[in-house]
Amino acid sequence: MQSTSHPTSRTLQRAATRRQLLDAGLRVVAECGFAGATTAAIAQASGKAHGTVFVHFRTRDELVEELVGEIGSAMSNRLSETTSSEPGLAEVVDAHLAALAEHEVIYARLLDELSTLPASARARVFALQSGIGWRLRQAYERALARGEVRALDPVALSNTWIALTNHHLLNRDLFAPGASVIAARGASLKSHLLDITRR
Amino acid sequence: MSDQHCPSCGSCGFPMRERDDFAGGRPDARYCSTCGNDDGTLRPFDEVLQANADYYVRQQGVDPAAARELARALLASMPAWKHAAA
After folding, report:
1. Furthest-apart CA pair in chain A: how many Å?
2. pLDDT (tens digit, 9 = 90+) per residue, A64-96?
3. Which of A51, A75, A136, A199 suits A60 as a labelling partner, its CA being 20 to 30 A distant?
4. Which residue of A has its CA nearest to B2?
5. In A, which residues are within 8 Å of B81 by CB distance?
C-alpha cells in the first residue's frame, strides 16, 4: 500500500516555503520599498535559492501582487476586528488609525510606490479604501438618523478622511521625523474629521 | 502579517467574518455575498465585475468607467479569476 503521508508532507513543506518567501518579501519591502524588493533580495532574505521564488511565483509581478494582497488583508482584518457590529464614527476612525499604525511603514511604502506597481495594487488599495469608506458611511448615516451630525456628502466625508491620512503617511518624514506619524498626528486628524461632522 | 484572522473571498478579497458576509450565509462558502450565489457558487464574471465597480463608485466616487477597469485589475489578481479575467 502506498503511503499518503509523503504528499501531505510535501504539500505542507511547499506551503511553508511560500509563507517564508512572503514574510521575507514583506520585510524587504518595509526596509527597502517595492523598488528594492527584487526576487534576488527576497530569496536572500528568506534563505532560499533564487530559483525557489519562481517555483512559487511565476513572475515578480505575481509576487508583488501577493505581497500587496497580504498588506490589504491584514489591514482589512484589523479594521473589522476592532469595530463592534454598529460602531460610531469615532470607533471606525480609531479602528482605521489602529490598522494604519500597525502597518504604517509598509503601507506608506505602498502608497508612495503605487504608480510603479501592477494595476492590481492600485485596485487593492482602492478596495481597502472603499471598505473604510463603507464603514465610515454606515457610522455616519446612523449618527445622522439620530440627529447627531449635520448633513454632508458621505463620499466626500470618507474621501476627506482618506486624503488626510494618506497625505500624512506619504509625508511622514516631515510630519513626524523618526517616529510614527499616526501616533503623532492621528488624534488631531480624528478631531478634525469629527469637527467637520458636528452640527 | 502571516496570520490570517478570517477568510477572504476568493473572488474579490473581501474579508468574511460575519455569517452574512458569506455567499448564501454559508460559513463554508469560498465567496462573499456579493460575488457568490445563495448556494455558494460563483456568480458570472460580468456580474461580479459590475458589483465590484459599483462598490468603488458608491464608496469613493470613482468614475464608473475607471471603476470597471479598477475592478477588472482587482479580479485578475484573485484566485477565482486569475486565469479568466484578462
Report:
1. 75
2. 999 999 999 899 888 887 657 789 999 999 999
3. A75
4. A23
5. none
For chain A, the residues whose C-beta falls within 8 A of a C-beta of chain B are: 19, 22-23, 26, 65, 69-74, 76-77, 80-81, 103, 118-120, 122-124, 126-127, 129-131, 133-134, 137, 155-156, 158-159, 162
Superfamily of domain A60-197: Tetracycline Repressor, domain 2 (1.10.357.10)
Contact A176, A104 (CB under 8 A): no
Question: Which ipTM score applies to this complex?
Answer: 0.86
Contacts of B58 in chain A (CB under 8 A): 130, 155
Query: Which of B4, B5, B76 lies at the smallest CB-CB distance from A120?
Result: B76
Count of other CB atoms within 10 angstroms of residue A124: 28
Q: How far is B33 from chain A (nearest CA, A)?
A: 15
Residue of A nearest to B77 (CA): A120
Tally Cβ neighbours within 10 Å of residue B65.
Answer: 9
Question: Domain extents for chain A?
Answer: 1-57, 60-197
pTM for the predicted model, two decimal places = 0.88
Q: Do B77 and A118 touch (CB under 8 A)?
A: yes
Which of B59, B74, B81 to probe the A interface (max A CBs under 10 A)? B59
The DSSP annotation for A154-182 comes to: HHHHHHHHHHHHHHHHHTHHHHSTTS-HH
| Domain range A1-57, CATH class | mainly alpha
The mean per-residue pLDDT over the stretch A123-148 comes to 95
